[in-house]
Amino acid sequence: MAGRPRNEQARRDILRTAADLASVDGLDGLTLGRLSTTLGLSKSGLFGYFGSKEELQLATVRRATEVILDEVITPALRIPPGVERVRALCARWLDYSRTRVFPGGCFFFAVMAEFDARPGPLREALAEGSRAWTGLITSSIAEAVELGELAEDTDPAQLAFELIAFMENANSVSLLQDDADAYRRAERAIGNRLGGRRSVITD
Amino acid sequence: MAGRPRNEQARRDILRTAADLASVDGLDGLTLGRLSTTLGLSKSGLFGYFGSKEELQLATVRRATEVILDEVITPALRIPPGVERVRALCARWLDYSRTRVFPGGCFFFAVMAEFDARPGPLREALAEGSRAWTGLITSSIAEAVELGELAEDTDPAQLAFELIAFMENANSVSLLQDDADAYRRAERAIGNRLGGRRSVITD
DNA sequence: CCTACCGATCGGTAGG
DNA sequence: CCTACCGATCGGTAGG
Which residues form the DNA-binding region (chains A, B) (predicted)? Predict the structure, then answer.
């Protein structure tokens, strides 16, 4: 709104780089000095875009949210409501993590663990993003139940908790152990929960 | 081994405080200045215990491992092998997270997300701890299968992945959303996986 | 957008 | 274990 329209694209590019750095080193590890060096501009020039370190951090969170919308949510929502949409949300998210759209894996996983115990605007922004994602999975599951594609005694919030747990743990294990098998484990767990298959004899 | 035996307990106390601070602010956010002020001793006096920031960080990881052994693993291993031991490991871990033995929730969750994309001795130490925990859950599940207390087609590594996912996600959601329900969701998911109950009509 | 700077804090050292 | 420092880097400002 109160903007520098001419610099809007430059600002977006700066924030995309900031999100890459923060996915590895965290939003505190994201310093004005390192970011300005990476971008090849002066520290005070960079600072002028944001006015404070905290505003840079908040703007980076908003930019990373856009990336997830583009990479995961918008494509998955092209699938009509039902269990296939839930599957697509999970599959897109796992691809987003696995292909390292951010070099440190999921941006939100990295920074939520950094701020989840530190009250302030960053924690609130991250909590809001997490609620929106959980809400989207929950309501997509509820639609699939209404359509008769999932068992009618399914608790959508409970199942959403479980699916998100599988996705986040795949991200975490694959990063820490350098073990891409974690994604196959998550896919198998998700397939079992959504496909009605009871046993583990899946593939 | 090559020790200052007289200072051993002081060192342990220092590291217990360091683990508390790091669970909230991370192992980078753990600075010699803040830790020395918290403890009421001089920065160089504190420094002398460790010789480098990285050694302080590594020693803090080892001290936090002891806490988990005392709070979670040793008590659970008093239960004989079988599904009740698996249940006890999960229940103890959830209590350890829920009661905020560390003020920032599970110490390892906080610092694994910090270092999982940053090669070096800290990432290796955390990866080793994570492998040991995953291995303990996996072998405890395998024992329960051998005892006929879990279905014989159970894949222990797969089930361990799923149980750990539920535990970590409960820790994460409870911290970020201030929502203790997350622990009930994890308990329900774990109960369903270990108790053979299919439906969600659990409590 | 830049150069040049500010006080505070960082990890670490000298010397006792 | 302490006081007193070191150079580097932090977020941020002055002035252009």
Answer: 31-50
